[in-house]
Every structure is written in structure tokens, then in C-alpha cells.
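Our consortium's second objective concerns turning raw sequence data into structural hypotheses that experimental partners can test. To show how far this objective has progressed, the report includes one record in full. It was chosen at random from the queue rather than selected for favorable results. The single chain below, 438 residues long, was entered without modification.
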Amino acid sequence: MRRELILLGAVAGFFLVSCGGGGGSSDSYSYAPWNIPYAPESCSVEDQNRFVYRLMKDVYYWYDKVPDSVDVTTFNSPEELLDSLRYSQLDKWSYITTKEAYDSWYEEGKYVGVGFGVGYDENGNLRIRYVYANSPADKAGLKRGDIILAINGKTIEEIEQNNLWSTIFGENEVGVKVSLKVQKATGEIEEIQLTKDVVTIQPVYLTKVLNVGNKKVGYIVFLKFIEPAYDALKSAFQEFKSEGVEELILDLRYNGGGLGSIARELASLISGVSEDNIFFTHYHNDKYSNYNWSYKFENMEESLHLSRVIVLTSSSTCSASESVINGLKPYVKVITVGSATCGKPVGMYSYEFCDKVIDPITFETKNAQGEGEYFDGIPATCPAIDNLTVELGNETEDMLKEAIYYIENDKCSQLPKAVLPTVKEINLPGFYGEIGAF
């Protein structure tokens, strides 16, 4: 599919860069950063490495942090080279993946895995956060709140100590076996065998209309900014509109980002801000400042035209999710409930080469008031824990309960600076981090 994709989790424009030639001079920088004129001379490892190095010295946002001279022949793959070139102080996101995996994820919402997301609770237990319907995990009866004790014979402590998260589930291929040791809510411990398959996700995971006092409040759990979300979001907001929803609780606690076009759609559905107004602006490195450009809101029939939105956030709320929060702030009162977001005010253009796609950080995003640079995350207005023992959508679940309290009382239930328990994080590398689930 040859069309522009704007990714914020990635924020990316997708552009074809085939092997064999390229032409054009990288010295004049007369081309746009999303439309480079060069490509690998061939698909040999050395030529792929040369291409990656050239790209990183050219359009990469922190190109000046990339060494002026690198012997690319000493690296066994472009992935290995990219890892060495990333500005590690700020860049946790630039990656290379296969074109097949990339297209399947962003265009179809599919990946190969077992179909669940995980996270630690405040007591250090690794629990399942959510399970995708009809996935291997769903068919095996796994539920939110189940505690994972071991994966493929390794305890969670062993996995952490040896940094095995990127490999412990095995190859990302259909048919790969995964064994889990799981403690259920009853306390019973089970050995569960899963087989990896193609998982189709539900980007709009859950919607409900809550009665809060005399108000109708929409609640939506939104997991991924990918193309299948476009129609799903329109449908959800049309339902909210027909139900007379007056307030919205937007649950982005597990949403790691994705397409900027979907972020704009979501912000427009919430706010009804005119299409003449800027949602966010891309700022490139100093070679390409003439190509800075803005995304504007779009007029949508399904818009709720709200003056306030309450967003549930965590350290897994990233990139496109953060752009919705930051981009709405000049126009709508945004209340965040939970904990600070991940801190990714930057995005990528995607470039295809050979059978791969590289997503290097290529720009920074700021809202209409020039606000951005939230590398430490966007702090929560009202602190609340992610209670993994209670189902999403249950009004007693801590984050949703706090959001409801705010709607009822126009204030937090505790001091905004209240200290939450420290929760360990799992940082998945590269494209695995984009998917955010196993």
C-alpha cells in the first residue's frame, strides 16, 4: 500500500526506498525528510548498513549525535548498526522490522503472538492486563489479573535478571509453543500451553455509557492508533452521541501510540475544534526546518464537542496518546488520572528498504501553543493506581473510580502530589514495543 502513514508511536510517513541506485545528493538537502532520493545499492548487509548510516546522518532528529565516521562493515546487520547509532540518552524507539510485520500491524491490526498484555502490580506480581478476543490466550481462558509465575521454564525473576523479555516468548512465528505457569484469581496454579498464531486486535477494546449523577458519561478503552481504529472510533462516538453523552473518560493507560492521522481523528471526535486550528506541528532537525508542517483538526459528524475530557494514563501511555493530550490542551480542559505518561514527544517517518522498514526518530511534535518536550512524561492531575485485579470498565477499578469522583466533585479525591507505589516496568525494544503485547 503506497500512501502516507503518519505514525506517532511511530509517527510516520511511509515511503518506498527500493534497492539499487538512488541518485540525488545528500549535500544539498533539497528534498523533504519524508521523501529521500537515495537507497541501498544492493540488499547485501554492507549496503543496507551504508544506507542506514546515511539516513541517520541525514534525517535523524539527533543526527549531530551520530559519529562522523563509522566502519559499517563491522556490524552484522542493519539492526545491530542502528542500535549502536541511536542517541540512547533520549531515543528508546528507533527500530527496524520486516515490511510484512509492519504492514500487517499498522494496516490490519494483526501480529503473531499469544494475545495478551502484561504489567507489574504495586506488589511486584506480573499480571495480565488485557486479553485479545479469539487469541490463543483467550481460548486458553487467561484473564485480566492472572499472575504469570514463569514463561517457558524461566521464573519472572530469572527473566528480569537476564534481560530476556525480547526473547523469552520465542520466535514470532505461527506454531511456536509457549508454556506458562499461571496463578488464577482462585489461587490455583495452572500450567498452560499456548501456540502462537495470528492475533487480530480490537483497538477499541471496550465502550460503556455510565450514569454519573444526572450525567451520561462515555467510557472508552482505546488500545492502538492503527488503521482499523478509524471506523471503530467513529462508530463508538456515534453511539456516545446518540446516547446523549455529556462527559468522556478516555482510557489510554495501555496505548503506546501509532498513526498520527488516528490521533487527529480522536482529538476531533472529542473536541469538535474547527479544521482551521492546529492539532500539532512537526519540527525536524536544523537541515530540514523549512519542512516543518502542521496537522490540523478535521470536521467530523460524530464529534461530541466536549469542553472537557478525562484521560486515564500510565507509563505505557505513549506518543500518539500523548499527542492527543497535548494537542487538545489549547482548546479543551484535559484532566489526567493515573500516573505520568511515557514521555515521547517525538515521532518517525518510515522508510522501506529491501524487505525491511526503518523508523528513525525524525521530528519533534508540539501543540498549537508551542508546548512539547515532555520527555519526562505528562504528569497525572489526579494520582491513581492501575488495579489489575479488577476488570476494566468496573466502576470500582481505581483509575475509573477516580475519574468518576472528579466528574462528581470537580476535584481529585486526594492531593495531586500524592505518592503512588513504585511499579516496575517492562521496556520492550523496537517494533515489539510498538505492539505492546505478546
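The partners drew two points from this record. Residues 1-7, 9-28 have pLDDT under 50 and may be disordered. The radius of gyration is 22 Å. Both points have been shared with the crystallography group to help prioritize constructs.
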